[in-house]
Amino acid sequence: MAKNSKVFVSCFIGALILASTAAYAEPSRDSNAGGNILTMAVAWKQTAAEYRALYYQGFNLAAQKVKAALETRGSGGKPLAVLTDLDDTLLLPLNYWGALIGSGKDFFDDAIWDNWIPKHEMIAAPGALDFLNYCKEKGVEVFYVTNRDQGKDTYDLALESIKRLGFPYADRDHLTVLIETSNKENTQRAIAEKVEVVCYLGDSLNDFKRVYYVQDVDERIALMEKDKALFGDRFIIFPNPTDGHWIRAIFGESEPPASDENRQKFKEAAMKNKAEL
Questions:
Q1: Residues 174, 238, 61, 117: is their CA dihedral positive or negative?
Q2: Beta carbons of 131 and 62 less than 8 angstroms apart
Q3: Pair 147, 181: CB distance under 8 Å
Q4: Residue 77 CB neighbour total at 10 angstroms
Q5: Per-residue confidence at 181, pLDDT binned at 50, 70, 90?
Q6: Does residue 18 surpass a pLDDT of 50?
Q7: CA distance linking residue 16 with residue 14, whole number of Å
Q8: Is the pLDDT assigned to residue 132 strictly greater than 90?
Q9: What contacts 90, CB < 8 A, 6 or more positions away?
Q10: The pLDDT of residue 277 is above 80
Q11: pLDDT for the residue numbered 204
Q12: Which residues, 6 or more positions from 34, have their beta carbon under 8 angstroms from its beta carbon?
């Protein structure tokens, strides 16, 4: 073999070894083997009996609140009502999160979400339909207040999603969809002027009071602690380990872009309290 050929072969083999080593040392984040930071939270949502049990627990509490309000209400008062969020409260987008994991995405992807919503693959949260039907049977109104933005069809898509699942009060008098803001307080106040609100249901503190909408983890916790007596009573909260305003407290925005800097922020948040090993 000629000298130049030997040099070429040696260089080629060396390049293959380097490429192979790099591939094993740095798995692609777009690969299922890439250590997706969403995996444990989504696996819990998809498989844990505890996740479902927390929904049953929440709706059982809500039903108890409704029952107590019906038993103690006087004559001539405002009609009773429940105010509730939709996504991750009554509706679970498990299919969406599974698709993100399958495609190697490790942060919420707004474009994929907007394309997925019209497929109407949400499922009802465990216990949600039984609770809503109980309210309907007892004459307790349910008002749905959510924030979404899928363009001009946003409202119709949200309304169709609750109709398909057989939710009662699936009409324009009971559904509000906020597009420009996630602040639900003005809508909640307007509803509360006409009805007596038994309880509020949500998966994010911002579903209950706007005061929680802050960009600091410790401040947010402190604000919640001030209202601790309200949880399980006035406010009934459901589990959501994948998204929500707790993300905003870490990153400054609820849907941060997928970047190495933000992956590092997640890691630092996970080590907020750590032992010396």
A1: positive
A2: yes
A3: yes
A4: 9
A5: very high
A6: no
A7: 5
A8: yes
A9: 84, 124, 125, 128, 132, 144, 162, 167, 201
A10: yes
A11: 97
A12: 27, 28, 104, 106
pLDDT band at 75 (very low <50, low <70, confident <90, very high): confident
Q: What are phi and psi of 185, to 5 degrees?
A: -60, -45
What phi and psi, each to the nearest 5 degrees, are found at residue 146?
-135, 165
Please state, in angstroms and as integers, the Cα–Cα distance from residue 274 to each residue in 57, 76, 109, 136, 269, following that order: 31, 56, 30, 48, 10
Supply the pLDDT for residue 269. 95
- For range 125-144, the mean pLDDT: 98
The candidate with the shortest Cα–Cα distance to 93, out of 216, 240, 233, is: 240
pLDDT grade for 171, boundaries at 50, 70 and 90: very high
Structure tokens at 184: 């639900």
Taking the CA atoms of 263, 268, 272 and 273 in sequence, report the sign of the dihedral they define: positive
Amino acid at 132: L
**Mean pLDDT along residues 79-93:** 98
Residue 73 has φ and ψ, to the nearest 5°, of -70, 145
Report d(CA 204, CA 75) in Å as an integer: 34
